[in-house]
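Researcher: Please translate sequence to structure tokens.
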Amino acid sequence: MRTLRKSVIGSMLLAGATVVRADVITDWNQTAIEVMKAANVAGNPWTRSMAMMNVAMSDAVNTVQNRYARFIADVPRAPKASAEAAAAGAAREMLLRLYPDQKARILPAYAASLGAVPEGAARNDGILIGEQVAAAVFAERVNDATNVPDTYRPVTTPGVWVPTSPPLFAQYATAKPWGFKSADEFRPAPPPALSSALYARDYNETKEFGGAKSAKRTPEQAEAVKFWTQAIFVPSWFQAAGQLSASRNLALAESARLFALLAMAEGNCFILEWDAKFHYNFWRPITAIRNGDTDGNDATERDAGWTPLNATPMHPEYPSAAGIVGGAGAGVLQSVFGDGPVSFTVADLFDPKLQRRYTSFAQMAEEQRVVRIWGGIHFRNSLEVGGEMGQRIAEHLVRNTLKPTQRMAQAER
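Model: Translation complete:
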């Protein structure tokens, strides 16, 4: 009875209102989301935790099944062990190491996972493998310099933001990405010059559509802005992955690989974003528009009292994390499911009745971008550049990590 009940409940949570089959991978992703919601974790620590857990699960599953290359773990192969128990053991161990105060959520989920696996040597060996793999992944990432909160402030010097804690930003510049050599590997070209026509185009679009009292923004656009809070941007891609994995009935190793690729891609978003943001220190619309008379561009008229619909994040504008997150999420999911029509629903983390349905990954990625214009906190070019960065992150990971093993290639012939 446990298997059906836990799988259905987990699927409903990942999929909003859509009831579909789940597996141990999607179950644990839902558990991780609930754990971090309870622990009030967001941003880079959120994506870091998801990457660590999902890489551990994928490595654990493939220590047993050997279908895809492992990312970190070098634990001896164990083909007779239970892959499901290995995944559960890895997820439990990782989440307990990261969030020991959340035992009340983690341990019941672990017991439920093991309830689907027959007792015996295969289960015991799988649990041990999972714990060993999680320990290896944790040790490899414990000093990755990606779990540090930062503070910063805007200034009115044209185009420039200045950090208040340079040592922390320097630490992000040395952070260890997933599957990349350095945080600046895909650093984009500089933002447009303040005197350029491109900057004037973006300035005026955000000024007109993103102001708190905008007359051009439609009620439907305002509703979209309201839905896409910071809390749902990255989890939305995990919801989509869970629904598509279930509806396409992905095998365990394929599901583990999908979530590991997605989690690593989204984990990289914040690392590469922070590097670029604090390299260029480009101002946000609220600062730019209130100081439009200082940018040297005759096509940007100042509005000293302009206020955006959304609260402005306290970090530089270029490039956009929303763009990177959407590009990376769409890129990974397209690599697995193709770029044809799909159907999935995204639900708010705190009020599941609030939902939006999409028929393509590109559609959701685009909406995640434009709501940042309608909310008045980004310029279009930053969003487009971010989207391209996200796509490159996804393509690099898909091409170079978790590749099919020789055993899998032979099985598919």
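Researcher: Any highlights?
Model: Residues 192 and 199 are 6 Å apart (CA to CA).
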